[in-house]
Specification:
The structure is a homodimer. The first copy, chain A, is of the alpha/beta class. Chain A is built from six helices and five strands; from the N terminus they run βαβαβαβαβαα. In chain A, strands 3-2-1-4-5 form a five-stranded parallel β-sheet, sandwiched between helices. Chain A binds chain B through residues 56, 58-63, 66-69, 94-97, 99-100, 102-104, 106-108, 110-112, 130-131, 133, 135-136, 139-140, 142-143, 145-149, and chain B through 56, 58-63, 66-69, 94-97, 99-100, 102-104, 106-108, 110-112, 130-131, 133, 135-136, 139-140, 142-143, 145-149.
């Protein structure tokens, strides 16, 4: 059984539905690391409640200062707009975030008796985020194998999926995409302009799936 | 330059002095994970202040619930006494603690611009704690190499030291051992009976170094 690192974003919500469909979702952990778009965790709670999967909210907001200057954290810095391919998007990198989230999830998995931890890194993240790359996932998997008396397996089922592939998978699984959150700005509705909104819109368009998201623009 | 994972315990205090002597201690992070023996962090602050090394206190106490039932965390459970070799000492294992601390330290190192993270796992820890074993350190080092745009080096300078070797090294470096904390019970003075007190006393005896620690017994 698996413990899912679950943010309430599009990718990890599809992962939640996939594991639920396979009866492999033991529980999910959502991590508050001081992100501006904390709204994503409301979506996480909503989906877990719908699927009847226990959701653990882990509050790491007290350590948000260690991450330095990422625009993902600070309400005062401006959020870069445009596509993920642009250099400005590097400003949204939160250093070593995934290693911290997976380390925390593994601790929770050990104490719950789960044998796997899953997270939703995907192909489209590779270019910008060092901690979403296949080599990183592979190295981290080696650590989890030996971090406790019994091995913990790290799974990243979307590592070779594009975001459009994930949208297609979600449509197949009956995900209500309006109950997922992407926008890094953390407003009341998706801005439609920041890197993750642009990526989200493009993914629906490429997949040919109707996008139910309400955007500001 | 290195960022040190620094608890205020005997091992990591000797490491702090070693890095300071080599002019390689950029800063230190102490982590409050809800441990009973939070007193160790007072020692950490004292030694960093003496050596003029910036000390960052990272408060992870809000997540102490994820660790389950370790007797290291809970004031209500009893602390096993006797040597580290006894099965009861497994009750003091905090699952995946070192991976979390190193992941957090790496994030801090990246935001400070340090190129290394050091922690004080040593030979005597191997039998009980999965996350102090050489293979674990090696696997974690591979993760840190690729967790960011520039590699972070993981150092564990005492991995092949016994605790007696560390005491000898500390004596050579002029460490004031009375300003280090080991006891897991977290009382006003060291109990002298819990696993880590027994290990501490044996290390001084083996090393032939005078032990300035005040014990209850």
């Amino acid at each position: 059984m698996a413990l899912l690192v679950y943010s309430g974003g599009l990718d990890s919500t599809v992962m939640l539905y996939k594991y639920a469909a396979e009866s492999r979702a033991d529980a999910a952990v959502g991590i508050n690391y001081g992100q501006r778009h904390i709204k994503e965790l409301e979506m996480a709670r909503w989906n877990c409640s719908k699927l009847n999967i226990p959701f653990f909210d882990v509050d790491l907001s007290s350590i948000s200062g260690i991450f330095g200057d990422s625009s993902l954290m600070s309400k005062s810095s401006s959020m870069p707009e445009g596509s993920y391919n642009e250099a400005g998007m590097k400003a949204t990198v939160v250093p070593n975030r995934n290693m911290i989230m997976i380390a925390v999830a593994a601790a929770r998995a050990i104490s719950l008796g789960c044998d796997s931890v899953a997270y939703a890194a995907h192909g489209g993240d590779h270019a910008i985020y060092p901690d979403c790359r296949p080599d990183f996932v592979k190295a981290l998997a080696e650590v989890l194998k030996i971090c406790d008396y019994s091995p913990i397996r790290l799974e990243a089922p979307f590592l070779n999926f594009s975001k459009a592939d994930i949208v297609l998978e979600g449509a197949r699984l009956g995900v209500d995409f309006s109950k997922t959150w992407s926008c890094y700005k953390g407003g009341d509705i998706h801005c439609g302009k920041c890197g993750t909104c642009v990526e989200r819109r493009q993914a629906f368009a490429s997949a040919g799936v109707c996008d139910p998201t309400e955007y500001e623009i």
